[in-house]
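To close the chapter, one final illustration. This time we ask the reader to focus less on the individual chains and more on the assembly as a whole: which components sit near each other, and how the overall shape emerges from the parts.
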Amino acid sequence: MRHIFSKKNRALLAELVRTDFKLRYQGSALGYAWSLLRPLLLFIILYLVFVKFLKIGNGVPHFPVYLLLGIVMWNFFLEMTVQSLGSIVGRGDLIRKIRIPRWIIVLSSSISALINLFLNLLVVVIFLFINHVDLLKTTLWLPLILIEVYVFALGISLFLSAAFVKYRDIGYIWEVILQAGFYLTPILYPLARITNLTFQKLIMINPMAQAIQDARYSAITHQSRTIYQVFEGGWYRFVPFVIVILVFLLGLMYFRKESKYFAENI
Amino acid sequence: MDDIAIKVNSVSKTFKLPKEKHSSLKSAFINVFRSGKGYDLQRALDDVSFEIKKGEFFGIVGKNGSGKSTLLKLLAGIYTPTAGTVDVNGKLTPFIELGVGFNAELTGRENVYLNGALLGFSRKEMQAMYKDIVEFAELKRFMDQKLKNYSSGMQVRLAFSIAIRAQSDVLLIDEVLAVGDAAFQTKCFNYFYELKRKGTTVVFVSHDRASLEQFCERGILINEGKEVISGSIKQVLQSYSSIVLNELDKDTTKNKHDNNASSYVSIKSVNSFSDKDEEKNKFNFGETIRIRYEVAVHKKITKPILGVTVWQKNNDKAIFATNTLIEGVNMADYHPGDSITFETTLPNNLNDSEYIVEPAVANESATVFYDQLPNAMSFFIDGSANQHAILSSIAPMSIKVRRSKK
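The assembled structure is written out below.
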């Protein structure tokens, strides 16, 4: 277990992340600024449509920031899984010619996504101030919630990147699943808008829905409905966490099994 | 096991080759319901075993598609064997090609760090080596340019300069000499000599007879995934020649002669002469030695290469080798019944010993040896004054001293 983060592997991981980052905004005039501008512009669009025109968030305090945090977390999940999905195939030249731990490649693209998440969270913090949101004690929970999202996304990434080597259809399928997931997760709408309690429960079993609602609860407003409230404290509220752990372990197992044959299957 | 660097135990490797494009779910589904397999099995390597000793230069020889690159990838741990085991004793460079991971969009400098990381160096270590690498590659002016603006020769130079920093016990090299100009090749050779001196184990895949013969002690010949022979590099290269010749004969099916090398030419009457043209095989130190042999042509050959190598007896290093290609002698086409006489004069500053003459005739590209007589004849030298090395030193000397001022 110790050799996984040996000096060599850490150095390689750092270099791969650095390369990713350098190449990402290559040739664009604004460069790294896009990491901040992109979520900002997206936010402005959603704000205009959902807050100003449709007035969906009436009744939720600080709805613009509430909306932004949800979008930022979902975008992290989307970016990380989509980038990791193609990461093994995209680095085929390396895998066919050199023996490096394969998981480093997935990990490096996940860390690129993490860096972006932190930049985006900076934007969220700025809006927290603009909106005069009171700092809540429960904000301390936020890192734990983000770790949960990361582990969930990592499990999925490991599975997708390994499966994509064999089946290129996975790319399109995952795109559709993400699209569906975006609407099945209470990102644009407050969960309270769904009046059917059974539907609420079903929606909240999804770890992303649970994590986004918990994050909003802990950092923005206690009026956001959490899984605890939806299940009224029943043991079902642990289902999302069990899903996260299962997805991670299964993803890891599948990746380990398949990674032996990456070099010949790519 | 202590003096063994790599042990390959009856290794086989089978690839699944899809009959049609298989990388979609639809075909995976269809293949489940269709009972027949959706792929062909291709046996790239079949029950290959050999050992490489520590400090040895080991050659892997074979035609294109014979399985030698698969073998190298198995040694590197890139492929997992279908059956059998590969044991590596010591640290092995994990790459088999130069410039792996080079990114055209990054600058030369950034690529150095990236490539270094792939070889297992931290950024700090690379910073310490950076200057040496750039100097060795002679690319100082270009380091802040993107790699896509480099010529391929420059890229190889950069990659090679990084690669030789790798501190490992076992090195795998796949055809590096195919690229680069003459100056670069000399650098490669010097590096190989240094490796030999340091006792690094090197596994070397190449088509180039000359460099294989020059560096490797032993080797293995792979043909159609099977081990044909493993042993001294000379034996291996000879078997390789006869395999290639066989193929050539199959191509020209009209000639249904026996398939050995001498079906094209045969070397006859190899002899040594004095400068008065008298045949003899005992020479005084410094006396002119002329080697002459005849080649009888049996089949039409195009611009062959005629050459001769001289060995000291019981020494596997050649001391003298030349041929018509090196000397730029114009060769023509020769027809059955022709006879060619080859003659060369040896520079004789040889010490007292027995020397063995090995004549050879090869095709235009030196890939096929039509005939080669490893032990054609020998001659003796007598009466040299300085007996300390193979060559007698008759170099004029002088000594200068600058005393320290005390």
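Residues 28-265 of chain A form one domain. DSSP finds 13 helices and no strands in chain A. With these observations in hand, you are ready for the problems at the end of the chapter.
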